[in-house]
Amino acid sequence: MSKQAPQVRAKNFREVALGYSEEQALKEASRCLQCKKPLCVKGCPVEINIPAFIEKIMKKDYLGAVHKIKEKNSFPAICGRVCPQEDQCEKLCILGKKFEPVAIGRLERFAADYELEGGRVDIPEIAPCTGKKVAIVGSGPAGLTAAADLIKMGHRVTLFEALHKPGGVLVYGIPEFRLPKVIVEKEVNFITRLGVELKTDYVIGRIYTVDELLRNGFQAVFIGVGAGLPYFMNIPGENYNGVYSANEFLTRSNLMKAYLFPEYDTPIKVGKRVAVVGGGNVAMDSCRTALRLGAEDVYNIYRRSRVEMPAREEEIENAGEEGIEFRLLTNPVRVIGDEKGWVRAIECIRMELGEPDESGRRRPVSIKGSEFTLDVDVVIMAIGNGANPLIASTTPDMKTNKRGYILADEKTGKTSKVGVYSGGDIVTGAATVISAMGAGRCSARAIDEYLKG
Questions:
Q1: How many whole angstroms separate alpha carbon 452 and alpha carbon 446?
Q2: Element (H, E) at 157
């Protein structure tokens, strides 16, 4: 797929990947073997009939292709951009045993973009109204999927979002250059056209508790609030000015449009030398955002090697092409500030890999006497997030684990509280957009069965 040139895209927030042309899509679709027992479908968390939608692309029935996808996934333009297909459907592609697997994600994006660019988004058939009401808490990938599925099943659905814009991590976390917000807006508009009632600026746990929702006319509640409580390393100096959590940094840039200054006057510290700690997709997003905001040098500090980095290979490559400097096998030990309380450096120690830990990755071990400092004026901690305790603390009869995540059945999303279901990162911890969508879909089925019963 064509991309903006690195030296160009590093200075703008426009989408990096430019999408397939019709000719490219047809050529790629023709590579599909149309397996009778397609393993790729087993790798898809929302069970898209992948060979069927690719076959429609081969026949130039592009609207038919996107309609086939939407039988299982209401948000293909999003998934085609940010889902890690290389570790899911494409990983199981038979063609991939000897050659490159079929580029399923890029074909999904092509079909979805064809529909959106044509401006003709068809509304699927909605089942007769059941009269039952469902509250969805959180409008991220899990909540949007559950809402879309439940409204199609004939239930009345109200979606509550704490922020002023719906989309969850899709709007506050993932940068514009990976997922244009106009795409998210169009996908969200699709579910409101289906009949979902959307209420923004509603903090459930404060305006209403889950119990109050159940008492006030909702027969079931789905909780899909994600895991947005940032983690820090608890090292000396983390309270200096210029130290951000990745959540705050990306939210200021993405949701609050700091990158469009002065049109949006959102305060954000634009450093000349920036250190981003962590090796996941959020770390890559933070590195590349800092660069686009004007940083001259951006260091990605990660305690393991390139092989162990959890970020998508595509994002690591993009970051490297744009000039991000990787400091691998390196771990921060303290942040150093100046007399005015602002960051001026970060002290690190070099690491080596030892025996595998519980994650299966080799455990990083510090090398004594290898400390060194990097002069930086901004530090961004991108080492993961946890569960916000608000809903759990106001719903005492709903069980959580010791880390604060909601305990829910993996296949149904059913919690310990009758009529309450949950899925996505608030159950599993930080995971992928598509796995959260899969959880929303499973919970929607279970809620439908519960309401009919």
A1: 10
A2: strand 156-160
Q: What gap in Å lies between CA 59 and CA 57, rounded to an integer?
A: 5
Q: How far is CA 323 from the centre of its chain?
A: 24
Tokens of 8: 């160009």
By CB neighbour count within 10 A (0-12 exposed, 13-18 middle, 19+ buried), where does 91 fall?
Answer: middle
User: What is the C-alpha separation between 214 and 421, in angstroms, rounded?
Assistant: 12
DSSP-derived 3-state class of residue 92: helix
State whether residue 151 is helix, strand or coil.
helix
State yes or no: cis peptide before 262, omega within 30 of 0: yes
As a whole number of angstroms, the distance between CA 325 and CA 275 comes to 10
Residue showing tokens 């569960």? 387
Distance of CA 41 to the CA centre of its chain: 21
Specify the pLDDT at position 430: 86
pTM over 0.90: yes
Phi/psi for 417 (5° steps) reads -100, 130
Say if CB 44 and CB 84 are below 8 A apart.
Answer: no
Planar angle of CA 33, 34, 39, nearest 5 degrees: 95
Q: What is the pLDDT of residues 310-332, one digit of tens each?
A: 999 999 999 999 999 999 999 99
Burial class (CB in 10 A: 0-12, 13-18, 19+), 292: buried
Phi and psi, residue 142, nearest 5°:
-65, -45
Question: Per DSSP, what are the bridge partners of residue 422?
Answer: 223
- The tokens of 422 are what? 């949950």
If you ran DSSP here, which 8-state letter would residue 407 be given? P
Range list of β-strands (E), 242-340: 243-245, 273-277, 297-301, 325-327, 330-337
Between CA 205 and CA 215 the distance in angstroms is: 14
Amino acid symbol at 11: K
Residue 148, CA atoms < 13 Å, CB-side half-sphere: 27
Residue 326 structure tokens: 């990787």
What confidence tens digit (pLDDT) does each residue in 209-219 have?
A: 999 999 999 99
Quick one: DSSP state of residue 382?
A: -
Neighbours of 1 (CB within 10 A): 16
CA 354 to CA 166: how far, in whole Å? Answer: 43
pLDDT tier for residue 99 given thresholds of 50, 70 and 90: very high
